[in-house]
Amino acid sequence: MSAKWFEDYPLSFMRRARSQLNAAELHLESYQYSECISCCIEAMELFLKSIFLLIKRDYPPKHAYEWKESEIIEVLKKIPIEVEDMITPNIANFPRMFLLASFWAKFYTISKYGQKEFNVGADRLFKSLDAELALKHTKEFDFGIVMLTNYLERNPLS
Question: Domain containing 9 — which CATH number?
Answer without folding.
Answer: 1.20.120.330
